[in-house]
Design a protein that fits this description.
alpha+beta, BirA Bifunctional Protein, domain 2, 8 helices, 4 strands, about 10% strand, disordered C terminus
Length: about 230
């Protein structure tokens, strides 16, 4: 694997830290050129580089920067937090033909607090969650083998995510997959210090972790391709 991304420039984190202190339109417009050149441009280059590499191990994932990269502008219409800008830059890779936030995907973000690299299903709709739970109930031995794989355990430890206190309605308390069925989210991830964003190791690590996550992601997506609520891209 050729490392085609050298890391974010120091100005990226400096901009995000300053934005956190000055989260207002006047400051952002004054510094928008820095955002375009030192945040948005390297983020686009990284997503494109990841897309080229993911053709080897995740060809079904969309890697179009226009789809993968989140806008820095916050939707404040229904939020008590009226700060207009996000103070991190993030991207989500998801399978073509599925809805961006209603399937399993690969995610990372760069923030003043650190670098987050994750995969799985974050906030599925009820219909999607039912489909995943049905799939787990029927094929839990395979899912357990994915979670127990040496590389998965080495990088991520155990699966993470919010859980119910008991199995959901429709599943017996003594179901052999009861511990898995309680999950409302299905996540795996790691955190790195913020300066890791500036290292050439960022690209190498993203490729390594995303590749390791793909069996986990694919299992979660298996029951979703025919789910009505997935809609269109």
């Amino acid at each position: 694997m050729k490392n085609t991304f050298p890391g974010f420039p120091p100005e990226t984190l400096r901009f995000l830290r300053a934005l956190k202190r000055n989260n207002n339109r006047e400051w952002f417009l004054k510094n928008k050129q820095v955002y375009e050149e030192k945040v948005k441009t390297p983020m686009t280059e990284l997503v494109l580089a990841l897309g080229r590499e993911m053709k080897r191990f995740a060809p079904e994932m969309t890697a179009d920067p226009a789809r993968a990269i989140y806008r820095i502008y916050r939707d404040v219409r229904f939020s008590p937090n009226k700060m207009p800008y996000k103070t991190h830059v993030a991207a989500l890779f998801y399978p073509r033909g599925m809805q961006k936030h209603n399937c399993a995907g690969l995610y990372f973000h760069i923030a003043p607090e650190g670098v987050e690299i994750a995969g799985g299903v974050y906030m599925p709709d009820p219909e999607v969650l039912r489909a995943i739970r049905g799939h787990l109930a029927a094929r839990h031995p395979m899912f357990r083998s994915i979670l127990a794989a040496p590389e998965f355990r080495k990088f991520f430890g155990a699966m993470d995510g919010e859980q119910l206190t008991r199995p959901p309605k429709g599943f017996a308390a003594d179901h052999p997959a009861a511990d898995l069925l309680r999950y409302k989210q299905f996540l795996a991830g790691v955190s790195k210090p913020p300066e890791f964003a500036e290292s050439p190791r960022l690209f190498i690590t993203l490729v390594q972790l995303f590749s390791t996550m793909m069996p986990f992601v694919r299992f979660l997506n298996e029951p979703l391709r025919g789910t009505v609520s997935l809609g269109k891209l």
